[in-house]
Structure formats: structure tokens, C-alpha cells
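Look at a sample.

——
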Amino acid sequence: MFDIKICEIHDTKHTNDGSFLQTPFWCEFKARHGWKYIRFNIEYKNTDEQFKIEGSQEVSVIFRTFCKGRFSIAYIPLFAIPSQMKTDEDLTMEIAHFITDTAQAIKSFLPKNTIAIRFDPDISFSSLEEKETFNDGMQIISFADRLKLRKNKVDIQPPDTTLVDLTPSEEDILAKMHSKWRYNIRLSEKKGVKIARYDGNYINLSEKIDKFYELTKETNARDGNSSHAKAYYLDLIKSSAEEIAGGKDVPQINLYIAEHEGDEIASIMTLFSHDEAIYLYGASSNKKRNLMPNHLLQWTAMRDAKAYGSKYYDMYGMPPEGKDENHPMHGLYMFKANFGGEILHSTGSWDVPLKTVYKLYSAAENLRAFWYKKVVKKLKGR
């Protein structure tokens, strides 16, 4: 359905716009932690004479080898879908073919042992019902047209989130929040909570990352989550500062720590770019939670992101059905939703299998996800 021409590129003007996951900065960072990447320019044109879709775009593909080199997985995070397709509800077929045709064009550039190309299409919906309707349609088209496009049960990026619009005034942003959240921000300030921001140039950065990591371990023990190694966070924030100091326009990474009377009680790590601000990671102590440091942390980061020029603040993940008071993650849902953002549900991860061994890999991946998300958390009482 699509005629796609692809060529590898080594330079780009898109260093600090669009999705941060597609920036060379993020790809190079991931390359220092086990991945490799290639950046392409894609020219596309469909073969339908009645409805023309054509254009070009850049895309970064990261890939990683597993099992001592036996196989590789390629991944395209936030894969841009042409705007003509996203604005027409009847173009699900075109989207399915665009993804699979792109995969076929890219695969010759990837390692020969690549068993699948995983896509996170940049498509989102305002309701879960719309998302499920779209996903059902994609699977029907894949079956009918023999596209071998599969919805992955394990989504790589958070498929559900809330975006706070940063373009209005600070007063208007606050006005959209739940009244209790505005009260909590003022309460935290009144009780003497102070927010400090650090970048990768801070002279005692290692000490602050140590504290962030301590809080992360405390949070993981409380909530049953997992996290990256300490060196991962340190490398992320330092590499951003080093590139900015070298005159490059790349996303800015910040570490925020909430302090009260000498105690560092909560922390978040954020990313600012020209288009978006992302709440990447967060952690908090079991102590002094009544001082509402997390509310003040988020509001401080939103204000800084607005001053930087980011258009919106992405809370980056929330339980889609957490509005239900009986849901185990209801508290997290309400915390993020009550900042007044727009709740969106993305289509999630889709795989284009390239080799039959993919079926075994997919089954193992699903089993691992079930074990950690269902069995382990239930055994720990969560």
C-alpha cells in the first residue's frame, strides 16, 4: 500500500523537539546502556489514487541483542503517524499498512538475527473505549490483510497519561487543578518545605543522586516497583549538562529534592524540551508525607518547565482504570489526574514479527510480565 524509501542519516536539526524518545540525545544515552541505534529519513507515498498520503519524516530505531547474541529486538518509540491518517477515523487500514511497510523497509538495516520490530505509534485517544475500538480494528485488518502485525500485551512506554497545558498563565494552570491540590501546594510551602533544583553541573551531584537513589529504594519497598541502577540516573543528568555546556540544543535533565528542616523527603527527575516536559522518575520517604512535598515538587517543576518554554507537562503514566475507588492504584491515579491535565490513552506497543522464534520470545515476555505484575505483587500484598 505504501511506497517507502529509506536512507540512514547521521545529522539532524531535530535535537530538542518532538518526543524526547526520538531525540539523538536519548538514543545516545540508551546506547551507553546496552542499546544501539540508527536514525533514518523516511519518504512515504501511498498507492491509493483517490486519497493521497505522502511526505517524509525522521525516525530513530534502537535495537538490542539478547541471549549472548542469539537474537535482537528493534524498537521504535513514539513512531510518528502522518497527520492525514490521525485525523480520519476511517484510515485504520492505512495506519496498519504504514507500520508494516515501514518495518519491511527498515529490516535490511538491522542485525540479521532481529526477530521483531516493535512500534509505539504516536496515536492517542480521550477515552479507553476509543482506544479499544482502534486496537480491535488494527487486529482485524492485520488478520484480513495478513500483515502479521500483533498487539503486544506488554506496553513499553506508559500507554495512559495526563498532560498539563503550560501555555496559560500560572494562575490559570492552578485554577484547573483540584482545589485540594492547590491547598496542598500552599500547605507544603507554609510548613517550610523547600525545593532545590540540581543539574548535571552541580559540584556535589553524586551526593544528591545518592539521596535520590535511597528514596527510590524506599519507594520500591513500599510500592513493589523496580528501578534502574544508580549509575543510570547519574549518567542521564550529567550527559545532558555536558552537551548543553558544549553548545548543543538537547533536552535538559533536572533533579528536584524537597527538604524540610534538614531532611530530604521526596525527589523527582524531569526532562524539559521545546515541546514537552516529562516527569521521568519520582521517589519519596515514608516520613513527613503529611507535608505534601510531592505536590510542591510537581508544581515547582511545572513552573520551571513553563519558564523553559515547554508546551505541556507529561505526568508520564497513570493507571487507566484508577478512577475506581476500589482500584489498588486509585491514589496514584488521583494524584496525577487532579493536577488538571488532559487524560490520554495511547494505542500501546505493536510488533511486526520477522522470525518464527518471536513466538517463543513473546510467550516468555508475557509470562515474565504476569509473574511480576500479578503474582509477585499479590504475594507482597499489593
